[in-house]
Amino acid sequence: MDTLRVCCIRRGGAVLTGEDFDDAELVARVANEDESALGQLYDRYQRAIYSLCLRVVHDPPAAEEVTQEVFVRLWRSAASFEPGRGRVSTWLLRIAHNLALNEVRRRQSRPVIAPDADWELEGARLVDTQQDNDPEVAVWLRERAQVIHQALEQLPTPQRQAIELAFFGGLSQAEIATALGDPLGTVKSRIRVGMQRLRALLLAAGLDDVN
After folding, report:
1. Within a 10 A sphere around the Cβ of 21, how many other Cβ atoms?
2. Most exposed: 65, 136, 194, 198, by fewest CB within 10 Å?
3. Distance between CA atoms of residues 12 and 155, nearest Å
4. Cα 47 from Cα 49, distance rounded (Å)
5. Is 171 helix (H, G, I), strand (E, B) or coil?
């Protein structure tokens, strides 16, 4: 465990918490087929994962099924988790997002964002939520989304993660706090400061109509 703490103490400028180390230890136990460890992770993150899935698929039963599949995947692939690359919560949310998108594709109920797009096109929501079928408008929105994506990349990692989970993942601030293992006040501050910085970056890039 000492080696784990040394290699994981910092990631993207953020100091990982004791809960992060606890999560990583639980995943290691899951990799050794410890069902009680899986249960602890389920109790800790089921609500946040379900909320994200529901906002993607817009169907409670489907969101519940996808949530269960996330933990099936966790059980099967726990050994692939690399503690030095990030938090368990972020890893699980990424799995949930990808599985939820796959479910939407299967149902063909609405357009989706490709998992490898880094939620880039979703960035258009920050500047224009209007749906328009005009190809020229679609291109324009994609260009704006690219600018937003680039601006997000300039934010400190903790601020960017909180904003992505709030605006693109659809989580509440309380759910983000649970998912990231951070105090609610810290999450609120990161989103507020991050949005102020993001607006400034977007204004500098020429998007002067951002609210």
Report:
1. 17
2. 136
3. 11
4. 5
5. coil
> Looking at the structure, do residues 199 and 160 belong to the same domain, yes or no?
yes
Q: Whole domain around residue 8: which residue ranges?
A: 1-112
Report CA Rg, the chain: 18
Digit-coded pLDDT (tens) for 69-117: 999 999 999 999 988 777 888 888 888 888 987 887 776 444 333 333 3
**Alpha-carbon span 19 to 133, nearest angstrom:** 46
Domain total of the chain = 2
Q: Are 36 and 70 contained in the same domain?
A: yes
Whether the model pTM is above 0.90: no
Looking up tokens 């993660």 gives 161
Considering 112, 134, 168, which residue would you say is the last residue of a domain? 112
Domain boundary among 112, 131, 146: 112
